[in-house]
Amino acid sequence: MTAVTYDELKQNIQGEISLSDADRTKYSRDASVFEILPEAIVYPKNVHDLQQIVKWASKEKANSPGLSLTMRAGGTDMTGGSINDSLILDTTAHMNHILDIGVDYAVAEPGVFYRDFEKATLDQGLLMPSYPASKNICALGGMVGNNAGGEKSLSFGQVVDYVQELEVVLADGQAYTLSPLNEYELQQKMRLSNFEGNLYRDLYHLITRNYDLLKQAKPTTSKNSSGYFLWDVWDKEKRIFDLTKLFVGSQGTLGLISKIKFRLVKPKASSQLLVIFLNDIKDIGHIVDVLKHHQPESLEIFDDHTLRLALKYLPEMIRKLKGHSLKLAWEFLPELWMSLRGGLPKLVLLAEFTGDDDDQATANLTQAQKELTATFRLKTHRTRSLVEAQKYWLIRRESYNLLRTHTKDRVSASFIEDIVVHPEQLPEFLPRLDEIFARHPEFIYTIAGHAGDANFHIFPLMDLTQEKEREVIISMSEEVYDLLIEFRGSMSAEHNDGLVRGPFLEKMFGPEVCALFRQTKELFDPLNIFNPHKKIDANLDFFRKHVRHN
Ligand SMILES: Cc1cc2nc3c(=O)[nH]c(=O)nc-3n(C[C@H](O)[C@H](O)[C@H](O)COP(=O)(O)OP(=O)(O)OC[C@H]3O[C@@H](n4cnc5c(N)ncnc54)[C@H](O)[C@@H]3O)c2cc1C
Questions:
Q1: Ligand 1 atom having least distance to the Cα of 531
Q2: Rounded Cα distance, 269 and 385, in Å
Q3: What is the pTM of this model?
């Protein structure tokens, strides 16, 4: 193998390449438990650059078998998805333009930060509702790459439900538009005698020959980001073949996304928040059930660790709320008072009710509150102002970020952090999960997430300088995923597989379905250029080699 030189690439692209140690170190981490030092960082300027990069990499691959391309947007991936040992392509530097906002859609480049996108769409009275809690630090390409979800997924689904069209650069270095095709359009594609034609033909046959197997493999949970979503490509009834369904959630392992067209919705005019304080987790399944009868738009949860951190770092929280500092500090008085008296609740549930006007939203909230307090002995509180509601939303959205940035001697380790089951199974599932945690009393666990979808973000606080604790990541993953499979849950609702869950895909989907995932990867990426070591290409050796030591 010869060392890669970048002279030819530099001449053929308009963007820049950095080989500096500082940049390589900066890009060696995302929000996962891994650290992988890349060779170089490329800042592509446009789709033409992406095409040149793919063509160059395909040519160079024969001399440098380790050469690969990993796309990066905000770099907040929790699975190791946006880090790798070869070239990292950061789209946020240049490919960050919103190109069009129409009556119910928007077209943008993958490096646009969601916070900027949201501001622009809200200015037009529109929203892409499946945004993650990391909405202020993540970008569109990563949201599509992971099939992100968030606080509104309970009512609005995931990113896959909002992608109408993708422009992608595939392994032959050409740019293609992916969109839903009717049978005639599909036939036209399959007739082509080039890379695209082969791809459509081979995929069509792979999917139709294994149609029942794939349909059965589709996780039945309300959310899923695990595996390749082959089960959704061919709609047999409507006769529609849609490769966007496969590309969303593929973490840049099948090709590079250069443009995204999203469907947008009109947000409801009124929103009211009910806050429910719980002292243990055991009734949560029943409480969620009662609340869901009243159709909340969101049903979120965070725990006492999060609340304590929010109070400890109050000035930072106040800064993020943006407004009059003293007034905002006043908003936190009830929690500060609870904390001083040692009465912080173990868990806080947020139920948001929306409507076309205040009366509609309030009516649903009042009924839900009445039924809850009649059935369970618990404290509830209806927020009195927008600022007060924003305070609770901020704590929820910042739950993991607070842990990640302020837990000094421990790492809030993401590996079983995105499990999802069926909400009605919670009463049976949670005690079983607790038995696993009881076998590891050395860790504190923090919980936040999307209670309405039964999607919990659980982070053990770990000392990764200890090899013993690093090994627990693998053994505990095995234990938790075995349990999940019993309940027909999914390893990942919205964060995806990456390196952290890729090695367990066979456990979840079985060897036959994984063989189809592998064939799919080979059809799109015969030279294994696109984000290797992730999803179906992940393995425990690479995993062990790159788990962070601090
Ligand atoms: C504090 C915090 C809170 C979070 N909360 C949530 C949450 O509520 N819901 C949720 O779903 N996730 C959450 N996440 C995980 C993560 O933020 C999201 O999945 C987010 O959408 C990733 O976006 P990003 O821009 O950071 O992507 P990146 O980390 O840069 O990339 C994510 C994946 O997409 C691929 N990718 C990026 N751009 C492209 C492209 N142009 N073409 C092809 N592939 C591409 C990357 O290779 C990588 O595999 C959270 C993370 C943090 C740190």
A1: 47
A2: 15
A3: 0.95
